[in-house]
Amino acid sequence: MSELTVDVITSLDGYGAAEGWPGFWGMEGPEYFEWMASEPTDYTVLMGRKTYDLMSAFAANGAEGTGPLDAQPKVVFSSTLAEPLGWRNTRLVSGDAVEAVRAMKHDGVALHTLGSLSLCRTLLTAGLVDRYRVVVFPVVNGATGYDNMYAGWPDVRLDLLDHRVFDGRLQMLEYRPTVLDGPPDAPAPA
């Protein structure tokens, strides 16, 4: 069975983006980009429609960093998109994402998400996520943040698998998540 890794970037207070801030909060650096470029790409990319729309537009315009994604197999989950999709190597799944990903995991190909917070939350809640990898940017977006990463999540215990610091300020934390029914010492429901 293959592994599913959820990859996200976030502000310290858990936002995926903030109004008026540039991409990567303007804090990306050479070590971070070198790490991203050195990561294996032998996996299928999973994304929702909003992320697909954004990233396929970047790829169509030749944005830096989208070249490797162009060649990778991609799956977009959407009930509003229709075939044919414009971004090559992309397959559309309009049915149940949980069932589709569960079947993909049995195929033996590694899976990684790209953006797609609601998809990530759905897959985590279903117990399908094997690795949760977050790069934390040293900024708090209390006033301007949107797309709170953890809104709507169940309780989750995270066991640290790996960690790293890039460019002296960005922290990569990789965990094995375990979805909990509640706090660890809570009595079992009757």
Structural class: alpha/beta
The low-pLDDT segments are none
The total strand number stands at 10
Radius of gyration: 17 Å
Helix-strand pattern = EEHEHHEEHEHEEEE
Helix content: 10-25%
* C-alpha termini separation: 34 Å
Overall mean pLDDT? 91
CATH architecture: 3-Layer(aba) Sandwich
Strand content: 25-35%
- What is the CATH H-level superfamily? Dihydrofolate Reductase, subunit A
Index terms:
single chain, 10 strands, Dihydrofolate Reductase, subunit A, 33% strand, 24% helix, 190 residues, 5 helices
List the helices and strands and how they pair.
Layout: E1 4-11, E2 15-18, H1 30-38, E3 43-48, H2 49-60, H3 67-71, E4 74-77, E5 90-93, H4 97-106, E6 110-113, H5 117-125, E7 131-137, E8 145-148, E9 156-166, E10 170-179
Parallel strand pairs: 1-6, 1-7, 3-4, 3-6, 4-5
Antiparallel strand pairs: 2-8, 7-10, 9-10
Characterization of the model:
One of its GO terms (biological process) is riboflavin biosynthetic process. GO terms for molecular function: 5-amino-6-(5-phosphoribosylamino)uracil reductase activity. This is Bacterial bifunctional deaminase-reductase C-terminal domain-containing protein. The protein is built from five helices and ten strands, in the order ββαβααββαβαββββ. With 190 residues, the chain is of the alpha/beta class. It has a single domain, classed as Dihydrofolate Reductase, subunit A (3-Layer(aba) Sandwich), CATH 3.40.430.10. It has an eight-stranded mixed beta sheet. It is globular.
Concise structural overview:
The chain has about 190 residues and is α/β, with parallel strands linked by helices. The protein has five helices and ten strands.
